[in-house]
Design a protein that fits this description.
Structural class: alpha/beta
Number of domains: 2
Helix content: 10-25%
Largest sheet: 6 strands, antiparallel
Order of helices and strands: HHHHEHEHEEHEEHHEEEEEEEEE
Distance between the termini: 27 Å
CATH topology of the largest domain: Hnrnp arginine n-methyltransferase1
Number of helices: 9
CATH class of the largest domain: Mainly Beta
Bound molecules: S-adenosylmethionine
CATH architecture of the largest domain: Distorted Sandwich
Length: 353
């Protein structure tokens, strides 16, 4: 453990002060602390900034729709390095409030200064839910809040909180629409490697871990050639209107096989749209689109489903915030196939954490 000057502190050290709050035992950390800590390191911001699909879309939305920003007051929810605030300032916003709770806020302040925008952008270090804004209302709320499986990390609630507290009556939320989709894939090789692996590890039965592995959705890129069925829209959310509770939902699905194949997993992904732009703008994180850092979310099935072209896998997906840790997501999947070569009906539970 080091103090801010890089000197080691240990319990045996005479300089050790048990009341020194700067010495935080890892055990005392909550998952929220780990979450915000992860955004204090530049590495995660590098990954996001280098996600060209993500960052270029926001840049295009802002630069190609200057009429939205001209003389407007903007709130950037979770500003990170301040990149979206800088785009808005350059597009002619009157003032931008960039709120960031991780240590990255200090860097954002330096970045704003280094680029000569200190008179337009005010960086506020703190949680959106705890800070005081110097203004009572803003015209635009911009945020990049989406997590894996769209809802992991649950930053959406922070955006909705900011919207309800500060957005003017006819204000704009960017992005304002998002949809979650589901499809089914053949994935024998990877399922073997990640799940069946635990059946026989150097001759030993470790299948108790297999049960856990099955419960954790895997974030990975899926090759579009693996897709066996159509893609089904599960849920659309209107960020400008929805209530926080609407992010928990239950939706039916009907996946029709487009060829004879085996199904090993269902795959979820999302689209994001900015409908207030002059021309509808957005991006998809689906397997048929250019890869993003969100990849896709793969939910492996207990059974291998032998499906024939035209047969239908029907079911229901229930998505809810985890009660103990609201940043985690609980997923319940009910599915059944009544096919010529396979009859299965099952319920599976997953946890994104
Ligand atoms: C996905 S990153 C996006 C960063 C930046 N806007 C960008 O586009 O590169 C989300 C940021 O929001 C911050 N954040 C999350 N919850 C927050 C909250 N409740 N209050 C303030 N900042 C928050 C995180 O620390 C993180 O830096």
């Amino acid at each position: 453990m080091s103090d801010p000057d890089g000197h080691d502190k240990s319990i045996d050290d005479p300089a050790f002060d048990p009341d020194d709050v700067s010495i935080v035992q890892d055990d005392d950390k909550t998952s929220a602390d780990y979450y915000f800590d992860s955004y204090s390191h530049f590495g995660i911001h590098e990954e996001m900034l280098k996600d060209v699909v993500r960052t270029k879309t926001y840049q295009n939305v802002i630069y190609q729709n200057k009429f939205l920003f001209k003389n407007k007051v903007v709130l950037d929810v979770g500003a990170g390095t301040g990149i979206l605030s800088l785009f808005c300032a350059k597009a002619g916003a009157e003032h931008v409030y960039a709120v960031e709770c991780s240590q990255m806020a200090d860097m954002a302040k330096e970045i704003v200064e280094a680029n000569g925008y200190s008179n337009v952008i005010t960086v506020l270090k703190g949680k959106v839910e705890e800070i005081e804004l110097p203004v009572s209302k803003v015209d635009i709320i911009i945020s990049e809040w989406m997590g894996y499986f769209l809802l992991f990390e649950n930053m959406l609630n922070t955006v909705l909180y900011a919207r309800d507290k500060w957005l003017v009556e006819d204000g704009v939320v960017l992005p304002d629409k998002t949809s979650l989709y589901l499809t089914a894939i053949e994935d024998a090789e990877y399922k073997d490697d990640k799940i069946e692996f635990w059946n026989n590890v150097y001759g030993f039965d470790m299948s108790c871990i297999k049960k856990q592995a099955l419960m954790e959705p895997l974030v990975d890129t899926v090759d579009q050639n693996q897709i066996v069925t159509n893609c089904q829209l599960l849920k659309t959310m209107d960020i400008s209107k929805m209530a926080p509770g609407d992010a928990s939902f239950s939706a039916p699905f009907k996946l029709v096989a487009e060829r004879d194949d085996y199904i090993h997993a269902l795959v979820a992904y999302f689209d994001v749209s900015f409908t207030k732009c002059h021309k509808l703008t957005g991006f998809s994180t689906g397997p048929r689109s250019r890869a993003t850092h969100w990849k896709q979310t793969v939910l492996y099935l207990d059974d291998v489903l032998t499906i024939c072209e035209g047969e239908t896998l029907v079911g229901n997906m229930t998505v809810a915030q985890n009660k103990k840790n609201p940043r985690d997501v609980d997923i319940m999947l009910k599915y059944s196939l009544n096919g010529r070569r396979c009859v299965v009906s099952r319920i599976q539970h997953y946890k994104m954490r």
